[in-house]
Design goal:
257 residues; mainly alpha; globular; transmembrane helix; transmembrane; membrane
C-alpha cells in the first residue's frame, strides 16, 4: 500500500506542470486582449453590460477550450504514469471519483473567477448600466456549470477511449460548432434535443443584458431550446456522464494499462 502522503506528492508532480501554467497565463492574456480591443465609446441609449459580464461569456468559449486542454493533458499524464490505476487502487474508488470531480470543478471555478475579476479590475461594476451583483453571480455560476460539464465530457472520453485526441477535440468541436449545427438542424428533433449540449440555449436567457453594441452578443437563434429545456438537457448529460464514470471506475475494465 502506498501511503496518502506519497500519493499527494505524485499528484503535485502532475499538476505542477509548466505547460499548464503557460496555458493559464495565455488564457488570461487573451481575456485582457479582448477587453483592450472592446469599443469603449458605446452610446448611452444602448443597454450595456459591465465588462465582467462580457468576459464571463467569452470565458464560456475560451475557458471551455482551455479547460478541455487542461483535462486532456492531465489525464494523458496520469495514464502514461499509470497513476489512474494507482490512485484508484490505494483510495476507495468512490473517493477517487469524488476527487476527480473536485479537480474539474476547481479548474472551472478558476477560469470563471479569473474572467470575473478581470472584468472588475478593468471596469467599474457599480454604475448606472451595470448588472446587480446577484445577477453577475448567477452568470458566473452558469458559466462554471458549463465548464464543469465540458470538463466531465473530456474526462469521460478519456476513461472510455484513453485517447488524448478524442478527449481534446470532441468537446472543443461541440462548443464552437453548436450554433451552426443548431441553425441548420433545428427541425431535427434528435439533434436539437439529444445530440447537442444546448449550452447556448442555456446561456442565452442568463445573458439577455448583452444587446446590440455590447461587448458580445448572444446569437438570436430560434433553433435553441427554452431555458428550462436547455438546463435539464445539460443536467441530464452531466448526471449521465458521472454515472458512466462511476460504473467504469468500479468495473474490472478500470485496471492497469
Amino acid at each position: 500500500m502506498i501511503n496518502i502522503r506519497l500519493l499527494e506528492s505524485e499528484l503535485k508532480k502532475v499538476t505542477k506542470s509548466k505547460l499548464l501554467s503557460l496555458l493559464y497565463f495565455f488564457y488570461v492574456i487573451l481575456l485582457i486582449m479582448i477587453y483592450r480591443n472592446t469599443d469603449g465609446g458605446i452610446t448611452s441609449h444602448i443597454i450595456l453590460s459591465p465588462y465582467a459580464s462580457g468576459l464571463l461569456l467569452y470565458c464560456n468559449l475560451l475557458g471551455s477550450m482551455f479547460l478541455v486542454i487542461f483535462s486532456a493533458i492531465l489525464c494523458q499524464k496520469e495514464y502514461q504514469a499509470n497513476l489512474l490505476f494507482v490512485y484508484s487502487t490505494n483510495l476507495k474508488r468512490d473517493t477517487f471519483l469524488f476527487l476527480k470531480q473536485l479537480v474539474i470543478f476547481s479548474f472551472s471555478l478558476l477560469f470563471g473567477l479569473t474572467a470575473l475579476f478581470l472584468g472588475m479590475i478593468f471596469d467599474a461594476i457599480i454604475n448606472a448600466t451595470a448588472l446587480p451583483w446577484y445577477k453577475l453571480i448567477i452568470q458566473l455560476s452558469s458559466v462554471i456549470f458549463c465548464l464543469f460539464l465540458l470538463g466531465n465530457l473530456s474526462f469521460t472520453l478519456h476513461l472510455l477511449t484513453k485517447n488524448f485526441i478524442y478527449s481534446l477535440s470532441i468537446p472543443i468541436f461541440l462548443v464552437f460548432m453548436e450554433p451552426a449545427i443548431h441553425r441548420y438542424s433545428y427541425k431535427v428533433f434528435y439533434i436539437k434535443f439529444l445530440v447537442m449540449f444546448n449550452i447556448y440555449g442555456f446561456l442565452k436567457k442568463l445573458f439577455e443584458n448583452l444587446k446590440d453594441g455590447s461587448i458580445i452578443i448572444v446569437p438570436e437563434n430560434q433553433a435553441y431550446n427554452s431555458f428550462l429545456a436547455s438546463f435539464f438537457i445539460l443536467l441530464g448529460y452531466l448526471i449521465f456522464m458521472i454515472t458512466i464514470q462511476f460504473l467504469f471506475i468500479r468495473s474490472e475494465k478500470f485496471s492497469s494499462k
